[in-house]
């Protein structure tokens, strides 16, 4: 009445940014629980991603020489033909060492065309041909997608040889949901507290009580 309007939420939501969380419960603070685990890494704190240093172990090789090892050794001619189509579309030379390719060309090869379609003419082992204009997802994105989707242990093991574990970008390696990490005591979240030594945790507890 005659004062500044104040907004409150019964849903534990911020009226300014819209961020909200469910009612706090112990299961939210455990990365072993689906209610607390980071959904991007399933509570592991790290993700297996394609490592470009492993994907291109010898940058002095050209595309024709099999610089992109994961695709060069493919038993299917689908991927080499798709790579040829992308190189033709963007004028990417296949006979020079990949270390000499401009960054924008390497980005297209590794991470895709961003939805831009390229002319792809595919001929299978029986001589049958198909032609279409399709976007190129990139070698890195292709391998990571196939790693997630495949039911073959042999395929997963093959792709893993080009991958390494990196801290999860979603939780920064803390293994918990962002909603859980937003809960703080004394200005710090549970990830900070659990990283403390016993003595540091004791002092933090005393100062925060």
UniProtKB/TrEMBL annotation:
InterPro entries the UniProt entry points to = UvrA_DNA-bd
Q: What UniProt keywords are attached to this protein's entry?
A: ATP-binding, Cytoplasm, DNA damage, DNA excision, DNA repair, DNA-binding, Excision nuclease, Metal-binding, Nucleotide-binding, Repeat, Zinc, Zinc-finger
Q: Where in the cell is it found?
A: Cytoplasm
What Pfam families has UniProt attached to this entry? UvrA_DNA-bind (PF17755)
Please tell me whether the keyword RNA-binding is annotated for this protein: no
The domain of life is Bacteria
Q: The UvrA DNA-binding domain covers which part of the protein?
A: 51-160
Q: What is this protein called?
A: UvrA DNA-binding domain-containing protein
Q: Which organism is it from?
A: Paenibacillus cisolokensis
